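Could someone model zinc ion with this protein?
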Amino acid sequence: MQSGALVPAMTGFLLLAAAQLHAAQPLVYERFENTTAGRACGGLGFTSEVIGFGGLARDNRAAAVLDGKPGTCVDYGPTVHVPTEDFTIEAFVKPASVARYQAIAAKWNEDGDQRSWALVVLPGGGLRFDVSPDGRFHADNLLATPAEVLEPGRWYHIAAVCQGATSRLYVNHRLVASKQRPSPGVFAGNANLKIGAADRYATEGPRPFVGSLDEVRLVPAALGPEQFLRTRQPLPEVKVPGPPARYFFPFVATSQQEALRWQSEARARLMALVEAQEPRISLPEAPLDVITAEPQDRGAYVLWNVSFQGNSRKPLRYPGLLAVPKAPGPHPALLALHGHGGSAPAVFDPKGLYHGFADRFAQGGYVVLAPSFPHKPYAAMMLWDLFRAVDLLQSRPEVDPQRIGVAGLSMGGEWSMWIAACDQRLKAAVVSGWMCTTEGVFAVPNCKCWRLPGLVELMDICEVHLVIAPRPVLFESALRDNCFPIGYTKQGFARIRAGYKIFGHEDAVAQDIWDAGHEWHGEKAYPFMDRILGGSAARAAAGGQPGYSAPAPK
Ligand SMILES: [Zn+2]
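Reply:
Sure, complex below.
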């Protein structure tokens, strides 16, 4: 290289370095030294109980205390914009509780699509970092950790870094989550930049933070851990829940014979894990004692309020709805299962995320039982009651006991997996909004009720579906399902299909992928069930009768 060319090149380099240095000046640096740089609102106070770990590398006498009431925050108004595609928001954070959404800092308002970015503590102790390029919500722009990363009452350093189209989350300087977004860019928008609150986030505002915050810094550059705020002593390592290094009983069969051997042992092991949490009560000890009452005429079928004795020596009844076609039987039957916060009426309701799938099957000539089940510490603890629900269907004279299937959404999808795997009376299953790899379930702050003790270590969660083989299963995996990201559900399905191939029935499994969120679809599910069980749900009218509203469970 000639020396003449070197000088302009070096000058350019120095200018660039100076520009980067300038760009790294914080846009916001809230040190909370008994005062705030932005406008302090509501019940914002100060404490001398500052960051542990020997304190900061620099002088630090006070931290902010936020009371968690609406209105408490530091408000910077709408004018602070990140001027580059790269930025870092970091803070020392001590949540007093991890029971709800709490914004650490956000320039985010869903009213009028004014979303820029948000760093939020999630219910259950996970973290979420959103960056929007255009003010709108896109699930692809959301980065989250599993639940249980943060515990209440402890100090953490948290950093969210946006570098081009990459989002990263760090806790105590350790990378805990990262992802590629579809495109770079940060919307400027009119949302107020707030510390300790958000204008409106996840349908509500102001999402007040409760606990202590200190050293909240927004820098228009993608910092690395070596540039984050430091403490005198090293920060403790955080534990992030995730898949085990190695599974105890994975599916590794290479022949049908091996696969069948694995399957019967896997089923026994799964049931033993449930039994350890919830002993099974036999039917002679606690008879089903089915009570039906208050029939409603629903056109093609009669809908009964039903209840039955649960898996308990004490009196314990579960309510539900039982649809019986008016046409002469015997009919195929379907166990229809709701998810978190759902109930029997919800799966009959054409409005809402279940799209009335229980009604649709009943219109299509199925006897449908939809129980209302409670949320237990572990979803799998409902297994013995799910057996009872199948017992109930089998006990009905209108039901052909050789043609019973199960379908459910979300936790109902998980229950469908469990009961289809463990109860071979079920001839087909639709698992909607649940099937995923273990890595994928951990990638999102899902309710931890899926983590039956011993299950996570046993096998990848998607492999539990291989215990159903060779009976047919249809998986519904929506493209924008925030609970079970599509990449992981595609991986899970590929593994299940490969496993079914070893069982000699590769074509018995299918995956319905369509553009929607966490909800029921049905487009493939109705013809799938009809084909196996001999119903006509695919041809039935969708949506039930006009003006129908299901009765509340008793
Ligand atoms: Zn749960």
